[in-house]
């Protein structure tokens, strides 16, 4: 047992009458790669935002390495690649990654971060002159530069081409081998299948399956040789969205 | 940490040609063209070349501050401030750096227009008065980044104050 990287207990978050996250319990062990899957609107991004201290839960508690999410971020133990995180014009890729390194207490070398993310050739390019896939690679380097204990990636391979995607997963696996923890959300299920130690499937803000890929297939009742897509569809279709405050009253703050 | 962010922002600002154009070159060229037209007039009891100098230096200083202010709203829209929030850099330091840069951008236009005025129109002031002009311009202009940037940076991303930041 290597310890706990992040723990969410009874997390609930409502937007109007919709429960984006509904009484969610999730423990992420240190040193593992965990994939967070779910259809659009399942609560993946909300869960990630709460885990990073960007959003507040209406009920429940979050701890990251034993402290609050905001404190863990402030201590430089967490880095994230956000779906809506962007860069600003006027800076070069190198400036960006040097800044990321300087903000964290134990950064890796800028060139190493650039090479690991496969964007070393872009070091002197301005960030406003990158293609979408290249910018995604720079975001990876930005997240890796601080050498965080927990790396949170929200749909990281969007817009990456096949080569960039392979490079990315090689980098992430290498990162996890150094006892780092990685949590990522994705719609590319084959990536979760090959990269993750554990898959958590969300639907309508709740966990509908949790375990290694083989266990996910078993939970869905599909053939072990079937694609994860089949298991995913079996698990996430016909999960009713929980609307309104009338359905449950369990969300007592812990 | 804050020093690294300041260095990063300073490099960005220097690379931005719009800042130089709107806050330094624009006011200086305007001064060179228009100060001669009313050279013998007095405006509010002050010789026109001097009055126009003060006006255009103030304009340049405001332009510089506004450039930094509008950059904050761009950064919000691009998701950069959101990205910074998941780094150890405290939001207060982001605001402090923006305010500092905003107030510093008020200085070059005042110096540039003042230099143009003294060369072209032989505007002469005592050293104390030049310093007073510079300090007053700086003090007057740096009010806005200190009051504007914090609200622009600290507000939640989709709050109503986004439109006025």
Which short descriptors sum up this protein?
heterodimer, A: 254 residues, alpha/beta, Rossmann fold, 9 strands, 34% helix, B: 165 residues, mainly alpha, 8 helices, 2 strands, elongated
Summarize the main sheet of chain B: 2 strands, antiparallel
Which two chains touch over the largest interface? A-B, 30 and 23 residues
Number of helices of chain B: 8
Structural class determined from secondary elements of chain B: mainly alpha
Unreliable stretches of chain A (pLDDT < 50, length at least 5) are 243-254
Total number of strands of chain B = 2
Average of pLDDT of chain A: 87
Question: Strands of the largest sheet of chain B, in order across it?
Answer: 1-2
Distance between the termini of chain A: 25 Å
InterPro entries (chain A): AAA+_ATPase, ABC_transporter-like_ATP-bd, ABC_transporter_ATP-binding, P-loop_NTPase
GO molecular function, one term (chain A): ATP binding
Keywords (chain A): Antibiotic resistance, ATP-binding, Nucleotide-binding, Transport
Membrane topology (chain A): Peripheral membrane protein
Question: Can you walk me through this structure?
Answer:
The complex is a heterodimer of chains A (254) and B (165). Chain A is an alpha/beta fold and 254 residues long. Chain A contains nine helices and nine strands. Chain A has a domain at 1-77 and 152-157 and 180-246: Rossmann fold (3-Layer(aba) Sandwich). In chain A, the strands form two sheets. Chain A has a six-stranded mixed beta sheet with strand order 5-6-7-3-8-9, sandwiched between helices. A three-stranded antiparallel beta sheet of chain A has the order 2-1-4. In chain A, helix 8 (213-220) packs across helix 9 (228-236). The two termini of chain A are 25 Å apart. With 165 residues, chain B is mostly helical. Chain B has eight helices and two strands. Chain B has helices spanning 2-15, 17-34, 48-78, 80-85, 91-104, 107-120, 127-141, 143-154, and strands at residues 42-43, 46-47. A two-stranded antiparallel ribbon of chain B has the order 1-2. In chain B, helix 1 packs across helix 5. The model of chain B is unreliable at 156-165 (pLDDT under 50). Classes of the chains: A alpha/beta (254), B mainly alpha (165). The interface between A and B is medium-sized, with 30 and 23 residues. Chain A: GO terms for molecular function: ATP binding. Chain A: Pfam families: ABC_tran (PF00005).
